[in-house]
Amino acid sequence: MITKLVILDRDGTINQDSDDYVKSADEWLPLPGALEAIARLNHAGWHVVVASNQSGLGRGLFDVAALNAMHAKMHKLLGVAGGRIDAVFYCPHSPDETCQCRKPAPGLFEQIGERYGMELTGVHTVGDSLRDLQAGAAAGCTPHLVYTGKGQKLRGKTLPADFPPDTRAHEDLAAFVDWLLVQPETKVHSVHKTPHKTGALA
Q1: Domain range spanning residue 137?
Q2: Which end of the chain is more exposed for a tag (fewer CB within 10 A), N or C?
Q3: Alpha-carbon distance 78 to 34, whole Å?
Q4: What's the number of domains the chain is made of?
């Protein structure tokens, strides 16, 4: 079995971010063109997975039912746009909890690699913040910054030195897809089915 995989951050990359957290389906609003960009990836043969910090759970700002409702809305709107996200991996912990899944730790990415039975070296990951890209790079992914969400403040600036050195920046998710779809396919990942290790999915 052969697949092409892209790993996306959620808040600020696919949907609008909020300093007060996205706490309900009503507050989950897709960024312009993001869902259509995912659909274009799918139509070109790419599988899309989300890796997202959701510390609002650990902080008690919303519960798993609310998170599931957000993702149900995301999947429904994606379906209307002709796209799909295969799975959502999330960290439910607050920053003061000791875990290996809260980005910039690579735990979510390691879960994805285990789920798909593949090495993540060279897999493209897209996010709007430093910690998104640090987590992906630690797992071997190729990091891409988007100038949406938290990334807006970096538009037009040289990326700080703490960003992974091979980070490529794009205006938004649609611009990343524009770039990716014209790249020569130099690496194809073999996927071997392995028993699913239970992780945080929604």
Answers
A1: 2-90+107-190
A2: N
A3: 9
A4: 1
How far is residue 101's CA from residue 113's CA, in Å, rounded to a whole number? 13
Q: Is residue 53 part of a domain?
A: yes
Model pTM score? 0.91
CA 157, 173, 116, 69 torsion-angle sign? positive
Which CATH number characterizes residue 78's domain? 3.40.50.1000
68 in the Ramachandran plot: left (φ > 0), alpha (ψ -120 to 50) or beta?
alpha
Continuous segment of H or E residues that includes residue 50: strand 46-53
Which residue in the list 9, 128, 132, 172 is annotated as catalytic? 9
Going from the C-alpha of 151 to that of each of 12, 54, 72, 74, 95, the distances in angstroms are: 8, 18, 26, 21, 21
- pLDDT tens readout for residues 65-119: 999 999 999 999 999 999 999 999 999 999 999 899 999 999 999 999 999 999 9
Task: For residue 100, tell me if it sits in a domain.
Answer: no
Beta strands 142-146 and 124-127: pairing type? parallel
Please indicate, yes or no, if residue 115 is contained in any of the structural domains. Answer: yes
Q: Which of 66, 63, 131 is nearest to 95 (CA)?
A: 131
Q: Is 9 a catalytic residue?
A: yes
Confirm whether 172 is a catalytic residue.
Answer: no
